């Protein structure tokens, strides 16, 4: 942790157990701990599509910010998060997948969103991350590691690049 403010926040954690909401508002959000934010949403059973989509956007953006092997970092991140949240409403789903949640909670993060963002960010055409171009082999690995349907992915590519 680089700044005195961040160091003070960490010192505040060395105390009584805090409610999840406080952990989210006072620590995970200010420190940019996006995976921790997702974990807090999951543990607290908080589901609101907009904040969760924002967390996913931040997770993707943060992996593109690092120098080095962006494809490997992204694959590891997505595979780890799939292992933890793959069968929950907190991981992006294919439009054909179903998970066991009450009918009123069927709002799911569309997997298309994540794939489209990866295509956009990984194309190198966004201007911000010129070095983060993802090779075609990344998408083949992603499909196999996340157990995605090849047909759904081809349909997404077809609709994206018409």
What does this structure look like?
The chain is mostly helical and 162 residues long. It has one domain. 59% of the residues lie in helices and 0% in strands. It has eight helices and no strands. α2 (20-28) runs antiparallel to α3, α4 runs antiparallel to α5 (70-85) and α4 (49-65) runs parallel beside α6 (111-122). The longest helix is centred in the middle third of the chain and has 17 residues, at 49-65. The termini are far apart.
Mean pLDDT across all residues, rounded? 81
Fraction of residues in H or I helices: 55-70%
**Uncertain residue segments:** 95-99, 103-107
Strand segment count: 0
In what range is the share of β-strand residues?
under 5%
Task: Name a few traits of the molecule.
globular, 162 residues, mainly alpha
What's the structural blueprint in terms of helices and strands?
Elements: H1 4-13, H2 20-28, H3 34-43, H4 49-65, H5 70-85, H6 111-122, H7 136-145, H8 150-160
Helix pairs in contact: 2-3, 3-4, 4-5, 4-6, 5-7
